[in-house]
Amino acid sequence: MPLYTTQPLKIYNSLSGEKENFKPIHEGNVGMYVCGPTVYSNVHLGNVRTFMSFDVIFRYFLHLDYKVRYVRNITDVGHIVDDVDEGEDKIAKKARLEQLEPMEVVQRYTVDFHDILKAFNFLPPSIEPTATGHIIEQIEIIKKIIDTGIGYVANGSVYFDVVKYNETNNYGVLSGRNIEDMLANTRDLDGQSDKRNPQDFALWKKAEPEHIMRWPSPWSDGFPGWHLECTAMSTKYLGNHFDIHGGGMDLKFPHHECEIAQNEACTGQSPVNYWMHANMLTLNGKKMAKSTGNNILPGEILSGDNTILSKAFSASVTRFFMLQAHYRSILDFSDDAITAAEKGYKRLIEALEALPAITAGSSSSVDFAAWKQACYDAMNDDFNTPILIAQLFEGVRYINLLKEGKETISSEDLKLFSTAINAFVFDVLGLSDEKAADSNNDKLEGVVNMLIGMRNQARADKNFALSDQIRDQLIALGIQLKDGKEGTSFSI
């Protein structure tokens, strides 16, 4: 029997403003779309926090035995600076400043994004589509919206008529805003006069001569509106109606509001059952910003190369720190806070390392099944990781009492307890035992150095066939050898 049948889950739905019982559209299956990064700069810490929240949500669905299709896009058509009608295309601007092709910018920062998420032990999404790979789908959606009379062409650009849409629908259903208070959401200030209403937003923008990223369309050589890409990619891979759409709190308006409008204009139905939004991350009580120097990159936490923290902190410690706050709460990052988190993380891992040495008795003096259910209750209450962590430290207390002989545990409960606490720490929260990882790395280094020694001896004996065989087999395992004046080194 799948675990989800015995563990009912509640999710806070931004659309209703309430926690709701989660019921997937198709039993046993979850379709989840999360807005990914715009790859024009190094991924910042706030992005990591948002994507970490949805990584844990993804992990928990898998833990509950759901089959999950998790789609997280890459925005490689740079939308306008500040996502309003002023400024330049972010990727094109970066390309000009660094004298690169736009796709060189995209490649550089997509690699950085993947490297950082891998370092923080994120599971990859099921599908990671790109905006540039779905231009055709975006053009087809625009055609449909034009056919409904809600989209209109003006001077080679195409706009969404918010006022006309609002006659039969509710533009503002997600953000709770009134249409009179809406801001214009086109991409380019000089296109302002082409719009029927200041609230209208661009579906397609005609490219100016200096605009590098452009595609042919029935209306002009141009580029799609920012909001359109997520509508195209989410519906292509999850259908017109799917379970969960997530992102940062800052995307609720206008981005997600516009997505709802586009979907309803095309299909006549609301696209998503549960809208989820992760809250922001502050630094030392203030908004993070490069301009003020109140900023730190994820890689700078790991290296210690920054002026904010007293030392370097590991990815697992940083992850543990972030998960001590609920995903819908504002989280303040500081040296004191992550130092305290490091102590807590070490206590947790040390207790888990001591667990295999616990000896079972004939009976249990603690209700370990109730403790396990309390862990599930925390996660079933809108993925409440801080409450789960509190329960895990209750488990740490049990381990210490068992070591001291002050509590007893049966062999059946020991198996239950050990399996559950390891699953919640490593599978659900996605933490790593860094001591074990370091030990494995030391062993790997020892084995590779032994093989390098054997290769050097083979070369000295002029047994080049064996020397090449050792090198080629290491390469096949992803281990590169580099011969230099000071000897042979390796990289993974």
- Helices, by number, come to 15
As residue ranges, the low-confidence spans are 80-87, 183-191
Write out the strand line-up for the largest beta sheet, numbering strands in chain order.
4-3-9-10
Mean pLDDT: 90
Distance between the termini: 41 Å
Q: Determine the structural class based on helices, strands and strand pairing.
A: alpha/beta
Gross morphology is globular
Radius of gyration: 26 Å
Query: What order do the SSEs take from the amino end to the carboxyl end, as H and E?
Result: EEEHEHHHEEHEEHEHEEEHHEHHHHHHEE
Q: What helical percentage do the residues reach? A: 40-55%
Counted beta strands: 15
**Sheet of most strands:** 4 strands, parallel
Q: In percent, how much strand structure appears in the residues?
A: 5-15%
3D architecture notes:
- It is found in: Cytoplasm.
- InterPro entries: Cys-tRNA-ligase, Cys-tRNA-synt_Ia_DALR, Cys-tRNA/MSH_ligase, Rossmann-like_a/b/a_fold, tRNA-synt_1_cat_dom, tRNAsynth_Ia_anticodon-bd.
- Keywords: Aminoacyl-tRNA synthetase, ATP-binding, Cytoplasm, Ligase, Metal-binding, Nucleotide-binding, Protein biosynthesis, Zinc.
- Helix content is 44%, strand content 14%.
- With 492 residues, it is an alpha/beta fold.
- Strands 4-3-9-10 form a four-stranded parallel sheet, sandwiched between helices.
In short:
By secondary structure, the protein is α/β, with parallel strands linked by helices. The protein contains 15 helices and 15 strands.
Present the secondary structure layout.
Elements: E1 10-13, E2 18-21, E3 29-34, H1 45-63, E4 67-72, H2 90-98, H3 102-119, H4 135-147, E5 151-154, E6 157-160, H5 162-166, E7 201-206, E8 222-224, H6 226-238, E9 242-248, H7 252-267, E10 272-278, E11 281-283, E12 286-287, H8 298-303, H9 315-323, E13 331-333, H10 335-354, H11 368-380, H12 385-403, H13 411-428, H14 434-460, H15 464-476, E14 480-484, E15 487-491
Helix pairs in contact: 2-3, 4-6, 6-7, 9-10, 10-12, 11-12, 11-13, 14-15
Protein name: Cysteine--tRNA ligase
GO molecular function: ATP binding; cysteine-tRNA ligase activity; zinc ion binding
GO cellular component, one term: cytosol
